[in-house]
Design goal:
Blueprint (H helix, E strand, L loop, with lengths): L7 E4 H10 L3 H4 L6 E4 L3 H12 L5 H10 L10 E4 L11 E4 L8
Parallel strand pairs: 1-2, 3-4
C-alpha cells in the first residue's frame, strides 16, 4: 500500500472482520508501520450498534464511519481508506479507494 499519510487509524472491528474473512490476514496488520489502532469504547459500541441496526453495513464499516466522524477535539473528518468505497454513505464520510493513484507519495 502506498500512502502519503504519516499514520493510519485502524478501527479494531475492521481488523476483526478482516480476520473472519481471511484467516491470519489480521495477524500481518500489526506489523505494518505507522498504524494506530482505534479501540472500541462503550459509547462508540452503542453508535456502531445503532448504525448496523439502521443499515449502515457491518460492524467493521460502522466502526470505520464512527472513527472517521469529526469530534470537538478534531473538527475535520478522517478519510476512510478502503478496498470497497461504495460501502460507505456519500455525504456522511469520505471514502477513498486504497489504490487511488492520488494517494501515491
Amino acid at each position: 500500500m502506498k500512502s502519503p499519510f504519516q499514520h493510519l487509524l485502524v478501527p479494531v472491528l475492521c481488523l476483526v472482520e478482516a480476520e473472519i474473512k481471511d484467516e491470519s490476514a489480521a495477524q500481518a496488520v500489526p506489523a505494518l508501520p505507522s498504524l494506530v489502532f482505534k479501540a472500541l469504547a462503550a459509547t462508540t459500541a452503542m453508535v456502531v450498534a445503532a448504525m448496523v441496526r439502521d443499515g449502515f453495513g457491518g460492524q467493521g464499516s460502522a466502526h470505520a464511519i464512527a472513527a472517521s466522524l469529526p469530534t470537538p477535539v478534531r473538527p475535520q473528518p478522517h478519510l476512510i481508506l478502503t478496498a470497497d468505497p461504495e460501502l460507505y454513505p456519500p455525504g456522511i464520510v469520505v471514502a477513498v479507494d486504497i489504490d487511488d493513484p492520488r494517494l501515491e507519495p
